[in-house]
Automatic annotation (TrEMBL):
It comes from Aegilops tauschii subsp. strangulata. This is Vacuolar protein sorting-associated protein 13 VPS13 adaptor binding domain-containing protein. It comes from the Eukaryota. InterPro entries: VPS13. GO terms for biological process: protein retention in Golgi apparatus; protein targeting to vacuole.
Length: 484
């Protein structure tokens, strides 16, 4: 709305159906679109004129127009702030831009042209992170004339007193495109996402310091925590918890998880979720079973070829009235890449003139192990157990995270052992239950194949034998086992 007022427009569509051609076996459907608008009000300024001329040239509109080249997009810089802190960017002769955490914006760089004759000082942007009323980091100078990705260790200053301390790492990626212009992405060194249904407690400890006090952070379902907020929150702590949060910056930490107790505080019995085993991320634990046999369509989160991807699983024991009843399993997906590390004086060193150390950047996703989709026309009740159905406890406490009623067209998450589980479905409208299927049998079927399969199709038998349904097992971008 800063460039153009809202437009009142009308779109009409006319189409006509023909019978199928007896020779080509194809049918034609001619379409006609009609577009009408009354008036367009454009605020005349340098950017709006460039935008209008660019659209006229690209759309090939009628009129005496000729756009030989456009500086609109090359002079536009998209800023992505992927941290939880606010980001301040200062462009030489172009003012400042403040981008809140987890948001992005675009800045028009007036009179900014990539030219070999232009001094590098004129194509710099200085960035800093801050938390209002608490702290800010010293500016880091980023050259925009050269694409690349680099990591810096920041120096933070308290806004309440004169304290200075080591701040979080920031990973900065600069890319150029003749059509889309500049892109500046600021990311933390470590991000941990909670993709499960449960609010999770994350416990961080330093290796070889298990008796030391740990730091515990709660992450809601669908939320994430990153290294930048963790390191700066440590300034108000002391002892082992402070050291544990500071270790996030170096990647030298152990992580364990458990569901938050308040999620099941309404149960009539005392339910206790215990901490999972620790994971360091240095060495992935291989996952066995049918999930390992299926080919995984990797999600290129970092959009680079050197990305490392690994999977492991964590289990949280569940006790009711002091007795162990089951385990909740979570799939841990770790993505990482090595990023050149720059000195802390706020000035980048050319990689061609000096050898640069590498710092590992990671994203850790915490998923359920199985997701079941219901594409039937009736609601279903799905049960996944680590043992045979006849050995299931009568009080159903052992089915926490193992059963769900799924309406038609929806899905549900399950927290079962991905290496071995039993699967059964009940058609609620008909009271018909399927025979239990074992994931071990599925894995044996896939062992006969010479290469990893994209999916596995199976038949599900119901009792009585009036109904039949098909199952498809696959792994999509998330990496967890999906059952359709």
């Amino acid at each position: 709305e800063d460039l153009i007022s809202p437009i009142t427009s009308y779109v009409f569509l006319r189409f006509r159906f023909f019978n199928q051609d007896p020779v080509t076996r194809r049918s034609g459907t001619p379409l006609r679109f009609f577009f009408h608008l009354k008036q367009v009000d454009i605020f005349i300024n340098e950017l709006s004129v460039d935008t209008l001329l660019y659209l006229v040239g690209k759309l090939g509109l009628m009129g005496p127009y000729a756009v030989r080249n456009s500086a609109i997009f090359p002079n536009c810089c998209k800023i992505e702030n992927n941290s939880r802190l606010a980001l301040v960017c200062h462009f030489q002769n172009n003012g400042d831009a403040i981008v809140p955490g987890q948001q992005s914006t675009s800045v028009f760089l007036r009179n900014f042209v990539f030219d070999d004759n232009r001094t590098h000082d004129q194509s710099l942007v200085s960035i800093s992170l801050f938390k209002e009323g608490a702290f800010s980091t010293a500016p880091i100078n980023i050259p925009l004339h050269e694409s690349g990705i680099f990591a810096w260790r920041t120096v933070a200053s308290s806004l309440k007193d004169s304290r200075r301390f080591s701040g979080p790492f920031v990973v900065v990626k600069v890319s150029q495109n003749s059509v889309e212009g500049l892109s500046l992405s600021v990311q933390p060194l470590l991000r941990i996402y909670n993709k499960s249904d449960f609010p999770l407690e994350l416990r961080f400890q330093r290796p070889q310091n298990e008796n030391e006090e740990a730091a515990v952070v709660t992450v809601r379902s669908g939320d994430m925590v990153d290294e930048s907020t963790g390191v700066l929150d440590a300034m108000n702590l002391s002892g082992g918890s402070k050291k544990a949060l500071m270790s996030l910056a170096l990647g030298n930490f152990m992580l364990s998880i458990r569901p938050e107790m308040s999620e099941h505080s309404n149960l009539s019995h005392a339910t206790l979720f215990q901490w999972s085993e620790d994971i360091t991320g240095e060495k992935a634990v291989r996952i066995s079973g049918v999930i390992e046999k299926l080919n995984y369509n990797i999600r290129k989160a970092f959009s680079i070829d050197s990305m490392k991807s690994s999977f492991s699983s964590l289990s949280c024991p569940v006790s009711v009235d002091g007795q162990h009843v089951t385990d909740l399993y979570f799939l841990i997906h770790t993505l990482g890449r090595d990023v050149p590390l720059q000195p802390t004086n706020g000035t980048r060193v050319s990689g061609r003139s000096a050898s640069v150390a590498l710092q590992l950047q990671r994203e850790i996703f915490i998923y359920p192990t199985v997701q079941v989709y219901n594409f039937l026309q009736t609601d279903i009740h799905v049960l996944l157990t680590d043992s045979k159905p006849e050995n299931t406890r009568d009080d159903n406490f052992g089915l926490i995270g193992k059963e769900a009623t799924i309406t038609s067209g929806s899905s549900a998450y399950f927290y079962v052992n991905p290496a071995m589980f039993n699967f059964s479905v009940t058609l609620i409208s008909y009271g018909s239950k399927s025979k239990a299927a074992n994931s071990g049998d599925w894995a044996k079927r896939m062992q006969k194949q010479t290469a990893r399969a994209q999916f596995l199709d199976l038949e599900l038998e119901f009792v009585p034998g009036k109904f039949h349904s098909s199952l498809r097992l696959l792994r999509q971008e998330k990496g967890l086992l999906e059952v359709e």
